Amino acid sequence: MHIKSEATERHTLAVIVDNEPGILARIAGLFTARGYNIESLTVSEVTEDKSVSRITIVTSASAHVLEQIVAQLDRLVPVHKVRDLTAEGQHVERELALVKVAGSGDHRIEALRLADVYRARVVDATTSSFVFEVTGGREKIDKFVELMSEVGLVEVARTGIVAIARGREGA
């Protein structure tokens, strides 16, 4: 007998929570305890009084598993709201990366040319290296990093994905 496995899909979740100690650990624990993978995780305070945070989680799961994830997140006490931005429709996703490149001569010139094409900003420069800041979708950043590996890539630091639904409605 052949058992058909459910297809997994990448989903971006926005979770609004009380900003209290341990909430991030509890949410991460929920994922790890059940064997769910977190591809990206970002957290930031979103209210002036710093009492509420927004956690953006990117995960890949089948429809059934994703339903379970959302339901379990929704049951956690300090969670106000869980939104599956992917299921809701159009949303904007962005990421920031700092990319360090070292080189001289033609490699240095090519790194600057590529940075211009990808609209990356130079945020630090020495006579032998650059640190570029690039923002955009995951694919854009992946491609920029791949191209920089050919001209002297040294190090990459990425923020993880932040996302917000399009239109008038808020989280």
Helix-strand category: alpha+beta
Radius of gyration: 19 Å
Poorly predicted tracts of residues: none
User: Helix count?
Assistant: 5
Tell me the span between the first and last alpha carbons.
45 Å
> Can you write the helix and strand succession as a string?
EHEEHEHEHEEHEE
> What shape does the CA trace take?
elongated
Report the major sheet: 5 strands, antiparallel
Tell me the total number of β-strands.
Answer: 9
State the helicity in percent bands.
25-40%
Structure description:
With 171 residues, this protein is α+β, with helices and mostly antiparallel strands. It is 30% helix and 40% strand. It contains five helices and nine strands. The protein has helices at 23-33, 63-75, 85-88, 106-117, 138-148, and strands at residues 9-18, 38-45, 52-61, 79-84, 91-102, 121-125, 129-136, 153-158, 162-165. The strands form two sheets. Strands 5, 6, 7, 8 and 9 form a five-stranded antiparallel beta sheet that branches. Strands 2-3-1-4 form a four-stranded antiparallel beta sheet. Strand 2 (38-45) and strand 3 form a beta hairpin. The longest helix has 13 residues, at 63-75. It is elongated and about 55 Å long. The mean pLDDT is 91.
